[in-house]
Amino acid sequence: MFQQITIVGYLGNDPEMRFTPSGQAVTSLSVATSRTYTNNAGQKIDETTWFRVSVWGAQAESCNQYLKKGRPVLVVGRLRPDPETGNPRVYTRNDGSPGASFEVNALNVRFLPAGGSGGTYRDEMGDEQGGAEEDDIPF
User: Is the dihedral of CA 53, 78, 73, 84 positive or negative?
Assistant: First the structure.
């Protein structure tokens, strides 16, 4: 059995590196993916999904050194469910609405080129995209 997830998104904050008691480096990343669509009623809907990513070893050190908030990344890894429920981690946002974050153990992190200043870029369709705002980060 095998499962794998590929995420392309923006870092919601600067990486945070720490070391295990045995000395192995681990870096935590928060990655936001988003999409915008129009529903049947004609309303524009913005949908953001957050992923908490753990990167290990030498790759963790590179991520900590070179990545910054707002930078686009591609992460390949495996989902790590909440040990109590087997589902994504559920939390309550500051405004009282429910949210969930998905835990990912990274197998590979690719640094994508930042296509503009201030964490924004123009995608292939010409739509301007931006990095996540700090108030939107659930953790």
Answer: negative
- Strands of the chain, DSSP E: 5-11, 16-19, 25-38, 44-56, 72-80, 89-92, 98-111, 121-122, 128-129
* Mean per-residue pLDDT over the chain, rounded: 84
Domain of residue 131 covers 5-136
- Identify the CATH number of the domain in which residue 14 sits: 2.40.50.140
What residues contact 127, with CB distance under 8 A and at least 6 apart? Answer: none
Write the burial class of residue 102 (CB in 10 Å: 0-12 exposed, 13-18 middle, 19+ buried). Answer: buried
Mean pLDDT (whole number) for 96-109: 90
Instruction: Output the six-digit token pair for 10.
Output: 């923006």
d(CA 29, CA 108): 13
